[in-house]
Amino acid sequence: MDENQSYSGAKEGQEDSTETSKPHRVHSGDKDDYEDMNSCQATQEAKETTNQPGMSMYTLQKVQIRKYQIIIIQTGSFDSNVSTIERRYSDFEKLHTSLFKEFYDEMEDLVFPKKILTGNFMDEVILERKLAFQDYLRILYSMEFIRTSRMFIDFLTRPELEEAYSCLRGGQYTKALEGLLEAVALQEKLTKHRPIQLVPTLCAILVCHKDLENFKSAFEFGEKALQRLEKHPGHRYYLPLLETMISLVYELGRDFLFFQKKMEERKAKKLPQKMLTLKELTVQEYV
What we know:
Mean pLDDT: 77
Main location: membrane
Low-confidence stretches: 6-64
Radius of gyration: 22 Å
Helix content: 40-55%
Shape: elongated
Membrane topology: Peripheral membrane protein
Structural class: mainly alpha
Number of domains: 2
Strand content: 5-15%
Order of helices and strands: EHHEEHHHHHHHHHHH
Largest sheet: 3 strands, antiparallel
GO molecular function: phosphatidylinositol phosphate binding
Keywords: Endosome, Lipid-binding, Membrane, Protein transport, Transport
Number of helices: 13
Domain PX: 39-163
């Protein structure tokens, strides 16, 4: 993973997070006061945060149902595609427990922010919790073996991917596509150490575009997936992806010789033949 990546944990949001997509400042008024915050303030806070090195956090919001909003940005250059996710305190607890079991020696002295049962909507408590999680996430991110671990990456991506794949299996391709596009933007930030991990999501996006008859877009994402599989002809996605790309080439009226050659090269290596179509393979993810 790129050393210049930054994770920023953030405010607590509602179960329905329509308003929590914008960073807010800690405010002493009622909930309605938060919803009246103008977008100029939110934009300015975002700019300030992206300029900070390492990890930084937005403020927490005082609401009854808590969720922390985490904003992931790529530092070192302007990141026009900021990723935003939401996690509960219990999600952080599960992550910490899993990581502690796997990396006990390295995490033995790492303090996890304690849960506060009373007075947890007071401004000073919110600020204290924000700073505690800021330090916690900064330390996690500083350890390469953690930030590149499957557990850490799943913590940041899995819930959104599960929802998107559920929509795909239900034939809600437009809704699935929205979630998958957001997820793959985040995955690109998190998996620079292993780009092949993006292949299932890229293929899922291809499937959605293809079923929506957006063949050009489907082809573009298929090319991205195929590039990551170039040195892995035995990968379970390789042959189904090649066959799908050939069908897209015919739809678009393009030259199919390149993909036919790739197919022949694979057959010459006598690798196992595929059993599933690309769509059949894709819908089995995150079941």
